[in-house]
Specification:
The chain is mainly α. The chain has helices spanning 11-22, 29-43, 50-61, 68-82, 84-87, 100-132, 148-167, 170-173, 176-196, 198-212, 219-233, 240-246; strands at 93-94, 97-98. Strands 1-2 form a two-stranded antiparallel ribbon. A hairpin with a 2-residue loop joins strand 1 and strand 2. The longest helix is centred in the middle third of the chain and has 33 residues, at 100-132. One of its GO terms (biological process) is regulation of translational initiation. One of its GO terms (molecular function) is translation activator activity.
């Protein structure tokens, strides 16, 4: 099973996954949609499933002809976001923030979106390098704007910015776990998000600065916010002194 342990999925679905990886075009639309739901449900169980779930999705997407799986994945990601308060967040909300299960599912969802977006961008960078011999600028290596892959990239980009907005709301910005999720997302794909949507990134950075000067923010959250602000100011690459300063030495394993 690509990226997963053999028993990661129920036995009754393992044959379906193998068939989809070999030839998704042989499966009905209904089966492909069921498979999307299955993979997304697994992806939000834990952050460690984000990368293998994205890998599994793209192993299917690259073989299909009519884009049923891709479009279903796009719809599923959007619906999970729209239903986040029921499926990912508020089921576990308490007066002091999210409990561990709620934080875990929300973090896993954002991680899955991040990994999907990263694969879309990397796939087309590699395609551009193959065509141009490595001389094509990154902004010229995006998928055709009307292609299904471009629509997926735009959906993922939009969802990631919307997730960031959720995490920077007053009700969330005081929760260290929320800001850590945001930090991990921006460390991974902040550069790509800014290249695609510089104005939206500028708006996000403005919100980060507003949160940073909020007097109710505790010292640890303020440090994480400052790290992300400096990461953006440093063109998404911290130097060694910055890296040493921001390393979370006191975070429990």
């Amino acid at each position: 099973m690509i990226g997963f342990e053999r028993d990661a999925f129920p036995v009754e679905y393992q044959g379906l996954i193998r068939r989809a990886v070999l030839d998704p075009n042989a499966l009905s639309c209904q089966k492909l949609m069921e498979l999307v739901r299955l993979i997304c449900c697994k992806a939000v169980e834990h952050v460690q499933y984000g990368a293998p779930a994205a890998q599994l999705c793209f192993s299917i997407i690259e073989k299909e002809h009519d884009h049923t799986f891709l479009e279903s994945l796009q719809n599923c990601c959007r619906e999970w976001y729209n239903e986040r308060d029921k499926l990912l967040r508020s089921t576990f909300l308490t007066s002091v923030g999210m409990t561990a299960p709620g934080m875990r599912r929300w973090a896993a969802y954002v991680s899955f979106l991040t990994e999907l977006f990263l694969r879309v961008k990397n796939q087309h960078c590699h395609m551009g390098e193959a065509v141009s011999g490595g001389n094509t600028p990154m902004n010229l290596m995006s998928p055709h704007p009307n292609s299904p892959m471009a629509h997926l990239a735009l959906t993922l980009q939009t969802l990631l910015f919307e997730c960031a907005n959720v995490m920077l709301r007053p009700s969330s910005v005081n929760i260290e776990g929320e800001i850590e999720i945001l930090r991990r997302m921006l460390v991974t794909v902040g550069k790509q998000l800014e290249a695609d949507a510089p104005q939206r990134m500028q708006h996000m950075v403005s919100n980060l600065r507003d949160a940073f000067v909020n007097p109710s923010i505790n010292a640890q959250i303020r440090k994480i916010l400052l790290e992300v602000i400096e990461l953006h100011a440093s063109s998404w690459q911290l130097d060694l002194p910055q890296t040493l300063y921001y390393f979370p030495y006191t975070r429990l394993l």
